[in-house]
Design a protein that fits this description.
Blueprint: H1 20-45, H2 54-89, H3 95-119, H4 127-147, H5 154-158, H6 163-179, H7 186-192, H8 207-215, H9 222-225, H10 253-275, H11 284-319, H12 325-349, H13 357-378, H14 384-390, H15 393-410, H16 416-422, H17 437-444, H18 452-455
Helix pairs in contact: 1-2, 1-4, 2-3, 3-4, 8-17, 10-11, 10-13, 11-12, 12-13
Amino acid sequence: MSTPELLHCVAIPAGDRNDVFDRQSIRMVILHNIIIRGINSVLYYSGQVEPGTSSYKSFLTYCNEVIVYLHKHHLFEEERYFPFLESHLGAGAMSGNVDEHEAFKEPLAAFETLLNDLRSDKATWNVETFRKSIYDFANLLKAHLSEEIDTLRPAVLKAKITREQFDAFEYESKKYFIANTSLVKDPQFLFINGDGVNGAWFPPMPGPISFVTKALLWHLHSDWWQFGSCDKNMQVKPEFAAYEPPNEQCQLNSILSSAYVLAVIIRGINSMLYYSGQVEPGTPSYESFLNYSKEVLVNLHKHHLLEEERIFPFLESHLGAGTMSGNLDEHEAFKGPLAIFESLLSDLRSHNTTWDVETFRKSILDFANPFKVHLTEEIDTIRPVVLKAKIAREQLDEFEIELKKYFAATSSLLKDPQLLFVNGDGVNGAWFPHIPGPVSFVVKTVLWYPHSDWWQFGCCDRSLRIKPEFAAYEPTKE
């Protein structure tokens, strides 16, 4: 039996998925890559099943779900999406896409006939025949999935469609999907062929529903979902990793994670500065605010301890001794004023000193100003171009696995994720922190309440949505 030739996913377009124009091509690539992963998984696992077994029957049913999803996707395009676009871009603007749909309909129908015959035992299993039937339509489909994206580029759409028109269409589309989605099948299929790196936000689904689909409803057809390209948390399986998409923005997870962690710290400082003017000594909210302020500092110290004991030594072992010394020197520069603020905060919490908002804020700014300079400058030392020159992707991947273990062993589910949520970035970093859906659900519901009086002082709500009073200080994207 030959080794199947799998298909490469389509590159993720650059842009901001929260912008309705950028989102069209970004989301379409996410959807197209789900189809490609579905096809890849069918090709791969066709060599792992044996006729007459329960897994064989489950595999064929899974194959049918791949085809069902493909048809649903194209039905939505042809009946709703393309007509909407043509109503603004002009008649025939999407005709090339429709023609490409027609080009692979016949070989796709031939594969569906074969699949139905196999499921009803009217045909005898032959893995090479099965794979050839897939390739007959898949190669044409893959070309279409790549080419269609150029018809959805932001520049094309902005020329003829207003933001308000797109927002209205998106609203109607959301109602359509809610009405036509099966919670027993559809989200599960999207999870096991999804993109946990570039598209962790898709499918857009409230946490409680995601939890139910992954925990309770998963088991109804778990024998099907084992054949996906990913696990239920959209983590791609090793056998499919080589076919994952490049990102047109060419950013590595390591720099993204570091930037988001630093932004969490800045938001924590901003929230202390702002809410220090909203509390009154002797009230419960005052005590809660001081406890929250302590958690901001705990997070800061944890971050720098991780850098100094693990991240910087790893980087210097590849980039060269001393390459991180500038960052360490900057850590030393603000340690003195930071210690003074910690002493003040400790005295306030133990009622050994009197509250004065101006003194409190001045003590914060004394360390925060040199600290902010450091946070900005540190990013240049971990730019992708710097890392790629000396560190292999495999080495970074191994280090990230070790960091994941470290965080799992040292994190408190009662405090750490909550602080990251209330000072996180729902626009640029909705995927951070990396927490499985069920755990995230428990953290935001059950475990939120032991210290909910603290978390009210964050820059965001628990869903990483920035509060209006802090919106002007949010980051721009490079």
